[in-house]
Amino acid sequence: MIKDSQFAIPISYGSTEVIDTGKWGFQKPHPQFLTAPCQEACPAGNSIPQFLYLAQKGEYGKALLTILKENPFPGICGRVCFHPCEASCNRGEYDESVSINALERYIFDTTIDQEPNLNPVQNGNGKRVAVVGAGPAGLSCAYFLRLLGHKVTVFEAYREAGGIMAYGIPEYRLPKDIVKKEIARIMALGIDIKTSSKVGRDITFDALNEYDAAFLSMGAGISSSLGIEGETFEKVMHGLDFLMRVNSGSSIPEGKDVIVIGGGNTAMDVARSSLRNGCRVTIAYRRGRPEMPAIKDEIDDAEEEGVQFEFLIQPVRINMLPDERLAVTFRRMKLGEPDASGRSRAIPVEGTDFIMETDYLFTAAGENVDLVSLPKDLTKNGLIYVDTFLRTKNAKMFAGGDVIDQPRTIVTAIGAGKKAAISIDLYLKGVSPENMFSGIRVGDKGSLSFEAYTSGGKFEMFRAAQKVVTLDKLNTLYFEHSERVKKRKLNRETALQNFQEVNLGLLAEEAIASASRCFTCGTCNYCYNCYFFCPEGVILLDPIKGTKYVDYDHCKGCGTCAKSCPRSVVVMKEL
Amino acid sequence: MCKVLPEKCGCDEGAVMKEFMTGNHAIAHAVKLCRTPLIAAYPITPQTPIYEKLSEWEASGVLKGIMMRTESEHSAMASCIAASLTGVRTFTATSSQGLALMHEMLHFASGCRTPVVMANVNRLLAGPWGFWADQTDSLSQRDTGWIQIYAENGQEALDSVIQAYKIAEEVYLPAMVVIEAFFVSHFMETIDLPDQGTVDRFLPPLDLPHRFDMDKPGFLVPVVTQELYREYKHRAFLSMDSVKEIAVKVDREYREEFGRGYGIIEPFMFDDAEVVLVTAGSITSTARVAIKSLREDGYKVGLLKIRLFRPFPYEAVRGALLGKKKAGVIDRNISIGSGGIFCQELKSALYNSDTRPLIYGYIAGLDGTDVSPETLESIVVDALNKDIPDKVPVWLRGN
Q1: Residues in A touching B210 (Cβ below 8 Å)
Q2: Is residue A458 scored above 70 in pLDDT?
């Protein structure tokens, strides 16, 4: 019925909701969450997009808890990790990778006074597990085993826990109070630790069999020898021993000439520690700079601080001079075919010998595992032999960290500790690990998700999440280009005066800016693009509850939400 | 309003403002005088100077309101309709391809009874492509329910825009004021700019009874039943029909206020004419000259200018032409398959009568060329010489 006026037009006060326009569609949007390349690259499977999403919002306490679900050492990793996450960061292809490492440190530093409420320990089931070695692998294993409810006893040969973190890495890279704080957080879960207890000296290896299971993670603490004449001179020292002295405050040479043999992180640590004692330092490495296994940042920092580098030389003999200085004979090398590690072999070139004089020679050319107290059948090629589930030939015994054949980095050790804890837990339950491991993978590079494991079997969502999001799957139209925040460091003069921490970390506004650069690939960060672009208004989001809802009765499946999602968390599925 | 320069007159009435400007700018001034707060438009040759001038004024704050620079003419008209339905006076301008692109929205504008005013600059429709004056674009839209006024020159265009708002806002139907490309849009004339206060008195603010109500949200315009549709269309039809009288009234009021009026048709040298030239737009100006010249040569010719095309001034045209012997209609347009459009409409209006004249159709200036007095004279001679009009219109070459 029309109003009387001549110019009336029809107006409807009803609703068209009764028409289920959703029935017209042949595909519908579904939320998904995918693995980001950074979390796949992380050997500990850290939930990086999730904790950066929280950091973007300034919720650092929650971000810390998110990290602690997969890695008990954020403060340490945030300082010394070799950050493979940043090399895989999708943003790296777009402009510059996200400062994940610096942010992990910031999250720890900014919450340092908080006592995080870790997940309540699940009901203990009376199983007792021994952990040998309180380094990153051992302590991680102890941490995760404790979260699973087992009773853990850690045997540590030295007086203090920490392994390489406490004794190996110098203070200017990793302040010891940080290490103490992180270890205390783990111990607070109720873990029994026996320091100054070396297996093979203070307790027998067989004693470990009395436990329901054991994790062997004593690390590789014996420096390799060079196998050359003159190595036993007093002023020729193993790099690791030198570092232990530095870290325990013992006396160390000052103001002298030092040559360091080696190209790994230990060599860099030795060189830079010597610099801080007023020494003139040269690193001698048998291959070239690109082949150096040390973290690139460490090599650059060493060079900036004034370490000299000599490449493609190898020591062949050490002689003592009348004034007690050393005369080291070096031979030049050339690069040949790649060896097992994929790096070019170093081949000595005959007739190129020359001499360099020095006061001290420190060797940092590799470390070996102390096999003396280990049963022969557990070892192979100087390492403990394990399968993909970290099981040794002894059904009760598991191993991880530098004792097994894996890259020698702290985060890889942490990942192994976690993997072993899960493997041990399954063994103690009498469950075979094959199916379980495939269900809790974080991508395909070997890391596992502890959150998936403890989700009570509801890990279907994690199984689907194992697909990794690559840059081509993101809609980068919504990302403006930006640069990383430059690292702030002490200037050279100040840095070399003592062992205070060189990297200064992010400022608060730099942290927000850096976290905001994260695309949060594969994880919804409630940017509301789907909501704004949906022509029907059938998408509802609740960032507080963390829910996403689609009114399928009225969704026509146009796919605009999927196309406009910058981070690939909406997928269209055909009905 | 004093038409003499104040220095010469010494009275204290507001001075008449005269400026030298193009037809396009004259239209822009009219829009500004009407205080139109919402303009949504897209540029197209030869309308662009209207768009640019309004844009300049909006950016500098001289024109208060918002100019939406839309991505197409279709969106421009959609925006005007929606804005109009919030109760706001709106304006857009276009031409040729742009008008064609707006076509479905033109139906919406009249169907939603929105008093949108649009300036259309007649430009030929591609293909082939060109920019020249041709009325086919606006005439192609004659079925969309829009009021159409064809202006002869820039001054008339300005005055017609102001009148158009008044007419449209009385009947709630959209109106277009039409000028030809370059002959009116770009030619410069002395333009009498009305004074703002007088325009404000003449054109009160818009009151749209059926505008959106934020407190009672609804959906405009939903599907309706067949009976309702017929009813809505019939009411629009009746409203449009009333425009014939309303346009006359508004034009008369305008003449009283501003001193200028044009009527909905204009007969010129008419009374004893044996043949009447029927024109619209700028050709009328040339025809005035041609008719005078022909009269001097002894021809009994007259001129009928058609200003209001929709609604077609049925009664006025019949009143003028019934009883005349011959009418020669000049169309700067063509409906392929039929003939010139003014010609068809005229024939239709005059059909039911015994005293209707013979109607001769001519297509001239379709190519955008000048229609010269000589061409018009040749048309008159042709119509006088032929006893019966040809079945198809005579196509005349331009100069």
Answers
A1: 5, 7-9, 11
A2: no
